[in-house]
Amino acid sequence: MNGIELEDKYGAHNYFPVPVLLTRGEGSWVWDSEGKKYLDLLSAYSALNFGHRHPRLVEAAKAQLDTLTLTSRAFHNTQLGLFCQELAELCGLESVLPMNTGAEAVETGIKLARKWGYQVKGVPRDQAKIIVFEDNFHGRTTTIISFSPDPDAHDHFGPYTPGFECIPYGDVEALRAAIDDNTVAVLFEPIQGEAGVIIPPEGWLRSVREICTQNNVLMIADEIQSGLGRAGTTFACEHENVLPDVYLLGKALGGGIMPVSAVVSTRAVMDVFGPNQHGSTFGGNPLSCAVAREVVAMLRTGEWQQRASELGAHLRLRLESLDGAHVKEVRSRGLWAGIELAPGMPTGREVCMTWMGKGVLAKDTHGSTVRVAPPLTITEQELDHAIAMLAETLQG
Ligand SMILES: *Cc1c(COP(=O)(O)O)cnc(C)c1O
After folding, report:
1. HSE of 139, CA atoms in CB hemisphere, 13 A
2. Who contacts 322 (Cβ-Cβ below 8 Å, separation ≥6)?
């Protein structure tokens, strides 16, 4: 049996992958078990913003592997403090709590907001409310799927965690109406990735900031997919010059090497956590921190963000020139696009299968949308080639 068959026989069937068996990756390219190469236009859902095995990141990992990999938080390590300082500075905030996966960062943000609500805002015990949005995606834990509107993610996993109210995305009045005295946080994606790269109306992020400030509510930006260069800026919130109270980060923070996530906030908010009140065995381990520090260093110069912005403008032009009979809508920001197929076209999955045959890997989302999120290392020529193959695919 090959790897795909083994997975099918012995693995859980909780994914429906494109049937390609990968053995090697370098930059924007991956190779399958038969030596055929593909452009990677998914980048592991933006966890590979710097491509496969970027030399600077591999170097940082190797150097740390040769010294110290894990201490647990029972002891200190020399990487963690520097990681916290450097990431806090990149965010324009003051304090970092390291975790591993994105869902853990979201869970941590929820706990932080609730405890802040009880201890600082004075919300009565167990009454805290967090506002979330239709079509959200924040991860897979039982609490997070409790407020997922996606039946696949949500159904049959109850009983569900209360304390969340779900309102329309991008609607300022709905947000004003939903906030009450017990509201501790607004948890949102500045661009909804899993929903198909949904971009909120201009001004919405600024309105969320204003409404949160006026009502003493924490603004929690889940930038796990949108952040760290993808949207043409370090954070998608920067598009409207907005600084949230809390950033949730993950995916690209680990450089495609380690699972690394973090909650970043002001000192005043973070200080509601005291010893033993939250933690993670692997969170803040020196190997993860060494890789993530290199990611932060790469983002500090702004060159990757600029590259995403410039290549993104090019990508947008190319996508807009696709046949209107095939494409209903193109949504994009930075090097990140959702291509919504016109009615009557093959499904997103079918398009991805044909595109794969032409040497390009991408993944559908929500049935009729193809998501494009190439590594920020991709060249303009590679991008043009990929889009030419997409045009061919859509011609049928
Ligand atoms: C991927 C993602 C998560 C969950 O991250 P995991 O590492 O898969 O747990 C949370 N929020 C957003 C916006 C994401 O894209």
Report:
1. 25
2. 330, 339, 387, 390, 391, 394
Active-site option among 251, 273, 282, 364: 251
Dist. CA 42 → ligand 1 center (Å): 14
Considering the domain architecture, whether residues 207 and 351 belong to the same structural domain is answered as no
Helix (H) or strand (E) holding 354: helix 348-357
CA atoms of 128 and 134, how far apart (whole Å)? 20
Query: Going by CA atoms, what residue is nearest to atom 6 of ligand 1?
Result: 102
Check whether residue 202 and residue 63 sit in a common domain. Answer: yes
Q: Is 222 a catalytic residue?
A: yes
DSSP-assigned letters across all residues of 214-240: HTT-EEEEE-TTTTTTTTSSSSGGGGG
Domain boundary among 300, 335, 370: 300
Residue 396 has pLDDT above 90, yes or no: no
Q: Do β-strands 95-99 and 261-265 pair in parallel, antiparallel, or remain unpaired?
A: antiparallel
189 CA: nearest ligand 1 atom: 13
Asked if pLDDT for residue 91 goes beyond 90, the answer is yes
Predicted confidence at residue 352, as pLDDT, reads 97
Its pTM stands at 0.98
**132-158 average pLDDT score:** 98
Per-residue confidence band for 367, with pLDDT thresholds at 50, 70 and 90: confident
Q: What does the alpha-carbon distance between residue 245 and residue 185 come to, in Å, rounded to a whole number? A: 10
List residues near ligand 1 (CB under 6 A). Answer: 45, 101-103, 106, 137-139, 189, 193-194, 222, 224-225, 250-251
CA 193 to chain centre: 7
Domain of 163 in residue numbering reads as 55-300
Predicted local confidence at residue 366, as pLDDT: 84
